[in-house]
Design a protein that fits this description.
The structure holds two protein chains of two kinds. Chain A is α/β, with parallel strands linked by helices. Chain A contains 16 helices and 19 strands. Chain B has seven helices and eleven strands. In chain B, the strands form two sheets. In chain B, strands 1, 6, 7, 8, 9, 10 and 11 form a seven-stranded antiparallel β-sheet that branches. Chain B has a four-stranded antiparallel β-sheet with strand order 2-5-3-4, with helices on one face. The chains are: A alpha/beta, B alpha+beta.
Chain lengths: ~475, ~230
């Protein structure tokens, strides 16, 4: 067990990676894995293994792992299932530290032979202390070492960052990856657990808690054999790094044959949800919320309380944000007298001047906006700020006007925004502010408010 | 627990309401005052001791959902009514171990449900929710895996949509949440300490004044192989 945990570090940070089943034919997965490693910029040695080629993508190929004499840290396997036990034995003999097993056709298939193969290779890997990602996975990516050990080279286009994704579904991993590219979310690692030969959610959480590149952990789960192990692992690391989890299966029915109400209403989903909260993990109910929440965790401090100031360039988006706040347990606080006075001095009585603040009438006066916003942000009753601003031709310079304020603020209290313009108008400015860590922006007021609500939800779990 | 062992020896898969409540009471869960009788003489003594108004319920290990089977008579005001109700309920029951439970009528507008289910992966899990006839209709429930800590129990109460029912509403006092939390924790303990208990339904738990009282209980058993 200990050896496996030690080897896990090498699995994600190998000095060399062999691709067994490497190919230069695009209709083979071995082609795409090679492309991922090379175009992803992996700095270590890449060793293609294929008995039928001397050279693949300009690299010398070897007939088998045994024919390569230098150490091999990571082996990525893209071969038919029946060949895998033999290759596992070679890996054990060669002292390979980690395996990514892309091949499918083990426990997950109807043929009972699949389960037998599964047991056989699990035995070999466990005896040798080799952690295995997969089988039946697209692979894994460690962005900070440019290691793309997957069959999707395009994953390397993701920004480097501090969010890790551990997923039981290849489809959802790709979906979240591509969505993250569009939302500029930075990743540390993506791990496709596949059919979990000997690496499951609990081991990944254990590893990522100690991973310096990871600050936020996202889990996408369908179902596991032993959920209690994950709960215990999460509890052990309580408060260290946030874990956000999305579990599908809410449509599954309870035990219909049960004789008690409790038994018939106990869908697995309800129990899973209760147990996640017991273990201090934040459950969200859809994939988009997973990314939205992870971004907020990666960019904001946690609020000290539920008090929110809603500062809005127009009344409508502010109202939409307030509705979500109310429903999610955040409080639209009353400002202190001092704050209210400052706002009244700078905002003509043409719109809402209490919380939510409609700053519309002050748009042409950047210094007024700055004074209003700053007073509200610094108010003692305010634990977090929701900032809404929608483009209008007349306020085109407004974002420029508050840039200094946002940069000075530097997320002293969490500030989450919904600033939106037609494509191309404010996008670059928003991106720059996000990259400097002064802003975290969402496309709708509801998503911004939900992100804030999730920060508070998590904070409550930590301090209970 | 002797009651459970006896039931298992008799190859029963559930406990009677009376037996189930004795177990609850042994785990410091407040239950309605009640006496089990099987003839009119004992009925008289029991009615005197509990005091009117009364509730009479058919009680046997074979009956799970008594309301549907017409085995409950409420608001019994005197001995004449008690006698009639006793005869009706006894006649309506079949089976050998039949008896009637003479129970105080616990008054309260608010009904909750507390339950336990033994999940194959999580083990004993405790449920809390809105009780009475609303349990199945609204499914406003929350679960935690046993053992529960106090904060888990308090969170379960905050989690249900109708949580406001626990506050001071319409002239009713706020519910004693500490007491409710202790009940939830102890129901989890029953599951942890008694392998044979497969499911528990305490429905309703009626809030009398500000205190929760277990008014009806069902306990389903399952012999575990060692």
């Amino acid at each position: 067990m200990r050896k496996k945990a030690e080897n896990m570090k090498v699995l994600f940070n190998p000095a060399s990676a062999a691709v067994v089943g490497a190919s230069d034919k695009p209709d083979k997965l071995g082609f795409h894995v090679m492309k991922s490693l090379i175009s992803g910029g992996f700095a270590g040695r890449i060793i293609p293994v294929n008995p039928n080629s001397d050279e693949i993508m300009g690299l010398k190929a070897f007939p088998s792992l045994a024919d390569y004499n230098e150490p091999i840290d990571l082996a990525i396997l893209v071969l038919p299932a029946k060949l895998i036990p033999g290759v596992f034995r070679e890996c054990a003999a060669r002292g390979v530290k980690g395996i990514v097993l892309i091949t499918a056709g083990f426990k997950e298939i109807d043929d009972p032979g699949g389960a037998d193969l599964h047991e056989e290779i699990a035995g070999i890997a466990n005896d040798a202390g080799i952690p295995v990602i997969g089988p039946n996975t697209f692979g894994m990516i460690n962005f900070h070492t440019n290691l793309n050990a997957s069959f999707t080279p395009e994953f390397s286009r993701l920004m480097k960052g501090s969010v890790a994704l551990v997923s039981q579904s290849g489809g959802i991993s790709h979906l979240l990856g591509f969505l993250a590219m569009r939302m500029d979310v930075g990743f540390s690692k993506i791990i496709g657990l596949g059919n979990r030969l000997n690496v499951d959610f609990d081991q990944m959480v254990d590893y990522l808690m100690g991973d310096p590149d990871t600050r936020v952990i996202m889990l996408y789960m369908e179902g596991v054999d032993n959920p209690v192990r994950l709960l215990e692992t999460a509890k052990k690391h309580h408060g260290k790094k946030p874990i956000i989890i999305n579990k599908t299966g809410s449509s599954a029915k309870g035990d219909q044959a049960s004789r008690s109400h409790t038994g018939s209403m106990a869908g697995r989903h309800e129990i899973y949800m209760g147990s996640f909260s017991q273990a201090g993990m934040l459950a969200v109910d859809h994939t988009e919320a997973l990314l939205d929440t992870a971004r907020a965790f990666a960019s904001c401090p946690l609020p000290d309380g539920p008090g929110v100031a809603v500062l809005s360039g127009q009344a409508g988006p502010g109202m939409a944000a307030c509705d979500v706040c109310e429903a999610r347990g955040l409080k639209i606080v009353q400002f202190t007298e001092k704050t209210q006075q400052k706002i009244n001095e700078n905002l003509p009585p043409l719109a809402l001047r209490t919380n939510p603040v409609d700053m519309g009438p002050a748009w042409y006066d950047a210094s007024a906006i700055e004074k209003i916003a700053k007073a509200a942000m610094e108010d003692d009753h305010v634990d977090g700020i929701l900032f809404m601003m929608v483009f209008a031709s007349a306020n085109v310079d407004a974002l420029k006007g508050i840039r200094g304020l946002l940069e000075d603020w530097a997320q002293r209290k969490p500030l989450i925004s919904c600033i939106l313009s037609p494509p191309g108008v404010w996008d670059e400015q928003i991106k720059a502010l996000e990259q400097s860590g002064s802003l975290i922006n969402y496309p709708t007021p509801e998503r911004a408010a939900n992100a804030m609500a999730n920060l508070w939800e998590y904070k409550k779990m930590q301090t209970r | 627990m002797k009651i459970i062992e006896k039931a298992l020896k008799e190859k029963r898969t559930s406990l009677s309401e009376y037996e189930a409540k004795q177990i609850l009471a042994s785990y410091q869960i407040p239950v309605a005052r009640e006496i089990l009788v099987d003839d009119v003489k004992n009925l008289m003594n029991a009615a005197e001791e509990i005091g009117y108004p009364l509730v009479l319920k058919g009680c046997s290990p074979d009956i799970a959902h008594k309301t549907e089977k017409g085995l409950i008579r409420v608001d019994i005001r005197n001995f004449k009514e008690a006698g009639e109700a006793f005869e009706e309920v006894m006649t309506a029951m079949d089976g050998s171990q039949k008896a009637v439970l003479v129970q105080e009528m616990v008054k309260g507008e608010r009904e909750l449900v507390i339950g336990l289910t033994r999940d194959p992966q999580f083990g004993p899990c405790v449920m809390f929710g809105l009780g009475g006839i609303f349990t199945e209709i609204l499914k406003d429930i929350s679960f935690r895996v046993a053992p529960l800590e106090k904060r888990d129990a308090l969170e379960m109460m905050r989690e249900i949509k109708s949580r406001k029912i626990l506050e001071s509403v319409r002239g009713m006092p706020a519910v004693d949440l500490d007491m409710l939390a202790d009940i939830l924790i102890n129901v989890g303990r029953i599951g942890l300490e008694n392998e044979a208990v497969k499911e528990i339904d305490i429905n309703p738990v009626i809030i009398s004044g500000n205190k929760p009282v277990a008014v009806d209980a069902l306990m389903v058993l399952e012999e575990r192989k060692a």
